[in-house]
Amino acid sequence: MTSIYIDHDAETGLTKKGNEGLVSQNIAPDATNKGPCGIFFIVFSWFAFIITFPLSIWSAIKIVKEYERIVIFRAGHLIKAGAKGPGVFFLNPFMDHFKKVDLRTITFNVPPQKILSRDSVTVTVDAVVYFRVSDATMAITNIENYSHATHLIAATTLRNVLGAKAMTDILSSREEISHSIQSILDLATNTWGVKVERVEIKDVRLPEGLQRAMAAEAEATREANALFITAEGEQRAALALKDASDILVKSPAAIQLRYLQTLNIISAEKNSTIVFPLPMDLLGSLMKK
Asked: Is this entry keyworded Transmembrane helix (predicted)?
């Protein structure tokens, strides 16, 4: 008995047909030794297919999209060639069973995890995981549900990695922690034919009491910095005034000019009578005369 497959070549755009014998490289090595029951089942399946023709032909033709692969089991045995696709395939509906796998990148949100950090602070962390199937055959044969398993191991790895970090490290080193989680997940899911491409920590929520304490600490730090800057400015202003006074003491003419400048500023602001004291050195010179 033989089965016919129809494959589509993506590069040439042509459809290729061929015969695939039961004893070939596309069948697992143990598929040829089925025993009397296996041989009877194969003969009966082809007999049923012929009897129900042409109705059975509609269930025998399978179309696999560009981003999909199918893993075919023939009489319970995995086809040795592995996953097939994309293209059009002919399967015996009474003998062949297949599983379809999507190769596109899948994203999921890790449920919020309450984690006790290394410094005994309880934080709630949300994360996003991006993964795809790298080997469709391994994803079907090595694990029952690769998507559910990836969800579970992502949540467990997130708790284990963040539990070994201090709260300040969790808040300040998100990118480094994300790379660490991605490496651990990729290594764990490699035997399932799953490739973890990226892990992102969305949010880190702290207890309300700790948030208020951190806000008060930050406010106190800002106030201390403001006082320090004000004191530093006053110190610089005092030094500048001291330097100016030293210059005025050394030059009496400069004092006179400063008096006149001050009088000009005051008279420009308000129209009023201003009593301006005369310098003592000027009075002394008049009294001598």
From this structure: yes
CB 2 within 8 A of CB 23: no
Highest mean pLDDT among 66-80, 150-164, 213-227: 150-164
What is the C-alpha to C-alpha distance for residues 221 and 227, in angstroms, rounded to an integer? 10
Residue by residue, DSSP assigns 135-161 as: -HHHHHHS-S-HHHHHHHHHHHHHHHH
Only one residue has tokens 């596109």, namely 104
Residue pLDDT, tens place only, 2-33 = 343 444 443 333 334 343 333 333 333 344 44
Question: Are 115 and 182 within one domain?
Answer: yes
Q: Is residue 224 part of a domain?
A: no
Answer whether residue 184 shows pLDDT above 60: yes
**Domain span at residue 96?**
2-100
Considering Cα of 161, then 166, then 171, then 173, what sign does the dihedral take? Answer: negative
Q: Which of 71, 100, 129 is the last residue of a domain?
A: 100
pTM of the model: 0.62
Mean pLDDT of 241-262: 71
129: left (phi over 0), alpha (psi -120 to 50) or beta: beta
Q: Phi first, then psi: what are they for 198, rounded to 5°?
A: -160, 145
**Cα dist. 289→252, 277, 278, 282, 284 in Å?**
20, 20, 17, 11, 9
**190 and 144 share one domain:** yes
> What is the phi/psi pair of residue 132, to 5°?
-145, 165
The yes-or-no verdict on residue 179 having pLDDT over 90 is: yes
Residues 56 and 80 in one domain: yes
